[in-house]
Amino acid sequence: MRRLLNILQESFPYYLNDDKKNAWLIAGFSVFMVVFLIVLLPMKLIWVLKFSLIGTVIFAVLFPTILWFPKIFPKIINPETWTIGKYILFTFFQLMIIGIVTPILIHVLNFHPELSLWMNVKYFFIEMMMYGSFSIILFTFILRNVMLKNSLRRALHANEELEKIRGLKYTPAITNAQQNITIQSDTSETAHLNPEELLYIEASDNYSTLYWKNTNGLQKKMLRVNLKNIETQLNNPLVVRCHRSYMVNINAITEVEGNTNGYRLSLRDTDFTVPVSRGKGREVIEKIEQIRNMAESA
């Protein structure tokens, strides 16, 4: 039981983490359900119309709940803290709406005149929840295992690359003979640092906190400036955006840990780990491979 609870609390992607991609996903799933039902059951015009109605309701429910709810209820639906348990509960919620709205429309449009409104709701809702619940749980855990396996495999590969770099005792500079730089904020504040000493940068709204390690120890400074602006000012191929709210110095990574929602990076001289979103994972690992190639050719 405890193991199950731990799994339900694991990080999990909030669908595709991109509104445009999610819109296509929703449209594709809705069309798939219509085609699936038409192929599965007898081909009569009334059935085609009924299944098209079901597909329309599915789209009408999934589109606002997936794309709009995180913006309307950011504290309740936060993609950054999404878990397997939240995903399953949220999908049950979507199923309940579909299971109530669809039979009401089926009754209003008189698809089954022999059935009362209550009977329409009863039959459709029970079938929707029974078959849908089983499919959701099964699909979620299969997807979780596949994603976790892939993340762990890639994390293992990245750690092997880091071990090779350490074995070669090679510490590449971020840029050739680059001196200290100054990060300008939107106000009069600035931060002066050597890019080679940079560990990571964390953003919150329009503020960013820079962390670096020099002879005086671990340093940090908050500036009123967003990550995109800092990225432009640094203009450095080995300081990469690894997450919506983080940038990391690839040279500072000591270990890569994989999970279902991406990766977490352990950094030198700090106990903090930096998250890597799924969309940025490949870029981070490729940068680690580039450093290994540089180490071997040095």
Task: Give an account of the 3D structure.
- The protein has a five-stranded antiparallel beta sheet with strand order 5-4-3-7-6.
- The longest helix has 51 residues, at 117-167.
- The chain is an alpha+beta fold and 298 residues long.
- It starts with a helix and ends with a helix.
- It has seven helices and ten strands.
- Helices cover 54% and strands 19% of the residues.
- The chain is elongated and about 80 Å long.
- It folds into two domains: 2-114, no CATH class; 153-297, LytTr DNA-binding domain (OB fold (Dihydrolipoamide Acetyltransferase, E2P)).
**Rg, Cα atoms, Å:** 25 Å
Structural class of the helices, strands and pairings? Answer: alpha+beta
Query: What is the C-level CATH assignment of the largest domain?
Result: Mainly Beta
Mean pLDDT: 84
Order of helices and strands: HHHHHEEEEEHEEEEEH
Question: In what order do the strands lie side by side in the largest sheet?
Answer: 5-4-3-7-6
Record field, number of beta strands:
10
Portion in helices = 40-55%
Q: Work out the helix count.
A: 7
Strand content: 15-25%
Low-confidence stretches: none
The H-level CATH homologous superfamily of the largest domain, spelled out, is: LytTr DNA-binding domain
The rough form would be described as: elongated
Tell me the CATH topology of the largest domain: OB fold (Dihydrolipoamide Acetyltransferase, E2P)
What is the count of structural domains?
A: 2
CATH architecture of the largest domain: Beta Barrel
